[in-house]
Amino acid sequence: MSTRTALPPKKRKSPYRGFHSILEGKYFAWVLLVPSLVLVVTFIFYPLYRGIYLSFTRTVLLEGPGSTFIGLENFRQMFKDSLFLLATKNTLIFMVVGLITQLALGLAAAMLLSQDRKYIGLIRVLVVLPWFTPPVVTAYMWRFILDQNSGVLIKMLESVGISFGPAGLWSNPDLAIYAVLFVDLWASYPFFMLFLLAGIQGIPKDMRESTSVDGASSWQHFRYVILPLISPVIVVSSILGVIHLINSPTLVLLMTNGGPGDSTTVLPLLAFQVAFQMYDFGYSSAISVAVLAAIAGFAMVYIRFARFGKED
Amino acid sequence: MAGAVASVGSSATSAFAARTNKKGTGKMTYWNHFTGAPERAAFAETTEAFKKASPAIDADIQTVTNDDWMAKYIASTTAKSGPDAVMIDVTRFTDMLRIGGLRDITTYNKQWPGKDAVAGDTPAFSFNRKVYGVPFFTFIDWTYYRKDMFEAAGIKKEPTTLEEFRAAAIACTNPSKGQYGFAMRGGSGGGGFIVNVLHAYNGSLMSPSFKATLSLDAAVEAMRFWVNLAVKDKAVVPTVATDGYAQIFSNFYTGKAAMVMHHGGSFIDVGKNLKYGSEVMTLARPNGPKGQLGFQAPLANGVFQHTKNPDAAFEYASFLGSPAAQTTFLKGTGYFPTSTDAAKDKFIADNRQFDTAVASLKTLPKTYTFPGLTAWRDLTCLPEFQKCLTGSQTPEGAAKVIVERLNTVAKAAAAANRKYYSDNRGK
Amino acid sequence: MTTTKKKKRPISYHLVNVGIGFLAIFAIMPLIWTFYTSLRTNVDINKFPTKFSLSNLSFDAYVGVWRDTNFPLLIKNSLIVSTLTVIISLTLGTLAGYALSRSKFKGRQNVLLIYLAIRLVPGVLLLIPIYIFMNTLGLLDSYAGLTLAYTTFTLPATVWLMKGFFDSLPPDLENAARIDGCSRMGAMWRVSIPLVLPGLAATGTLTAITAWNDVLFALMLTSSDRTRTWPVGLKEMIGEFQLPWEALTATAMLSLLPVVIGFALVGRKMVAGITAGSLKD
């Protein structure tokens, strides 16, 4: 990296000449890509192969080692399994409500934080902090704040007349999932905010500012000028957000573990339970593969909308 | 080397072990699922003693949480590489055995002089006449009650039956003061209590040949009793559906609940918060129509199937089975020893609260262990019970689901058992 | 908009301020309350009704956590693994990002998607295969194994962000250096890298925090305190028997500390960097 690289490549007499000429040539990109690609492909290939293979087998560890090929039986079983259907419903609620709330608050926050104010840089950093809080901390912290006996937010809500009854918020099968969604909103909306803020800041300044202070036309400005310009960012961040909402059950796992009853069981959690508590790796893999296929569907949408490398 | 062995005066059993079983050397990794500070301290003390007794073994004591235990166990079994010795919770024993990570230690055990002292609990970790675990200590289920709340409610006689327990719980309940009779565990870990109450109303739930013997009528009665304690009598802390270990004990310590049920494992912790004798008492679990509400559940240590160092692994497992190690744990954590020698320790004789344990040892049934038990308990019994608490299920409906699921589990266990016998024939 | 510009601000200006204030409070109040709780005694915390008071506060819980747990060792492990991950992930990711930015070969978008694919696979499918994989490599319960896993899982973000940063540089600068006789790598190293340093810092922080916060892989791939990371230690300490609230909140705050310090150092750059880099695909 010292004096040699300063010389024009052709004059060099380096033992690595072949390597250097590749770097100068047409295929230099592949040389640079190979180390990281090898790592990613190795890590992804075997788990994926094993997961897809197991999903077509009956592999119940309690029945002894080995797998029996059973074709699509696991996938057929899913549609007869009421818990799977419930978990699918919960996953959809989690995805749709989570996406709408996080996107809406993220968009509102991005609009607010794109304004010029004193200390706005500092405030942006503060607002993003929850996104970087370890999920373990987020989960236990909010369980404490929303604890029926000593939770400060519960007491504050009670003082303004909102009560969840003596059994509390977490014992309520209709509300528990929304409680987790609320915590996920706190932790995850800054992700949308960051992306959308970037989108808004990419808009030229004279177009960004509404020329009128009148409320209706501000809205129209947002609706007809800002929104169309940032819609690609909205699409991209939504899909990444959906992947996160579906694939990261950490908060559900730590806060409700699927309860009370089955009311907060989501698909990845069910896949965990089926594998590590019922030891049915065939069925668990089938659930995961189904989830993967669904998310991959979203990824296809991603390709269509984001159009990588379109600029050339 | 001989000098090192001779220098250990206190742990005679391990010195004996050296003469019969081959003495282990080298690195030995052990997995346990103890996360509490007193448990860790007791492990640190025991490990020091072990290093003195077996200086040739480099013991590495590692903790894997209960939540992640089976995942890591399955991964190591699949990879054929993991620890050398493992802790075995009795309710998971058959699961762990079937998954294939436990080594047959019958021969080792036969040659171990300390085996007779723990022989009472060895059958719980044996299958098909093969031994897979050395008993460590046993969890004896009991009840704690607050003297002040019992006195305020005018309860003179300690409850001995489920009906008396219910009456006492109702008598102690005063919602306007935020006081309830019983801190019921309906959240994480609450499934064990459903198994308890089903047993108390039905007697044995599963025959040794894996035939489910839980009748629907008994299950309905059991579920009605347990659910109604919360729903109809309202004698239970209302957050029951989400209350795990930490919550029930917090409710108990703060005077929100008069009674709490757990096992002897919480003995030392309770003593730190309330004074035995004047503030808190231990009490044997109440009797149901067909059996007592609770179990004695031993814990053992076994040898991992794919270990390269079984000698050292057994040496460690048997060291934990020795009276010296068990006494350390008894004093540090209150865990009741399985060794009849350790049970003679003055600590137990001097401590009136342990009378409950000593008496319960004679009456409490041994806990179940059958393949699929933990999944049935945690993924069927508990959610169904929680649904009853939140009103989305009836006790009758829950009982039906629980019985049906147990039948399915039993059938699968029986089928797997036949396969297991034919696979292992001649081995 | 014409006359009363400076003197009297429109009501919307103040509404925006209120909104910004609300966002800041929403973000940090839970953290502040948790910090406050960690300073109280358990008796006060459980007292009914909850009272706010500034008396009786102490750092006892922190002292207790520091003294009675493996906190210092676990923090050291987390720091080592996070640092190694940042170094390796940034090196590989920068090379890949540069390649994807400068070369216009066909199938480039597919390569970008391969990096994303690793994020798509549900965790339950990954756990056992990765354990077997690491066991085969002899990397179980080692810094190297954990670093390798984290490097792989942070690569998508690193590659994408770095590609964005390189895209945003004017190509003329590098071309000029090349004409002066610099090799391709020389031009990248001397011209482009110094210009994307803020972006590099931002991406590095993001990578570090991802590695710092992970529980799933750390649980599976480590088992001894020699290599175990802090969030796993925290989860283990809470365990099924849980800690008293003040100890729990103190440990939570301690594990947040490096994140806050990291933020204080490069937070603004990072937010600015991520917003600048994330869109230039």
TrEMBL record, chain A:
Provide the Gene Ontology terms for cellular component.
plasma membrane
Q: Spell out the Pfam families in the cross-references.
A: BPD_transp_1
In terms of InterPro entries, this protein maps to: MetI-like, MetI-like_sf
**Localisation per UniProt entry:** Cell membrane
Q: Which GO terms describe its biological process?
A: transmembrane transport
List, alphabetically, the Gene3D superfamilies matched: MetI-like
Q: What is its main location?
A: membrane
Cell membrane as UniProt keyword:
yes
Keyword Ion transport appears in the UniProt entry: no
Q: Which residues form the ABC transmembrane type-1 domain?
A: 88-304
**What residue stretch is flagged as signal peptide?**
none
UniProtKB keywords: Cell membrane, Membrane, Transmembrane, Transmembrane helix, Transport
- Name it: Unannotated protein
Q: Which organism is it from?
A: freshwater metagenome
TrEMBL record, chain B:
Keyword Signal (UniProt): yes
Q: Which organism is it from?
A: freshwater metagenome
The protein here is known as: Unannotated protein
Record has Cell inner membrane as a keyword: no
PANTHER family xrefs: ARABINOSE-BINDING PROTEIN-RELATED, POLYGALACTURONAN_RHAMNOGALACTURONAN-BINDING PROTEIN YTCQ
CDD domains to which the protein is assigned, alphabetical: PBP2_TMBP_like (cd13585)
Report the InterPro entries cross-referenced here: Bact_solute-bd_prot1, SBP
Keywords of the record, alphabetical order, are: Cell membrane, Lipoprotein, Membrane, Palmitate, Signal
UniProtKB/TrEMBL annotation, chain C:
Q: Which PROSITE patterns match?
A: ABC_TM1
Which cellular component, as a GO term, is one annotated location? plasma membrane
- Enumerate the spans annotated as ABC transmembrane type-1 domain: 75-266
Record keywords: Cell membrane, Membrane, Transmembrane, Transmembrane helix, Transport
Q: Where in the cell is it found?
A: Cell membrane
- A Pfam family (short name) is BPD_transp_1
Its placement in the membrane is given as:
Multi-pass membrane protein
Single Gene Ontology BP annotation:
transmembrane transport
According to UniProt, the name of this protein is Unannotated protein
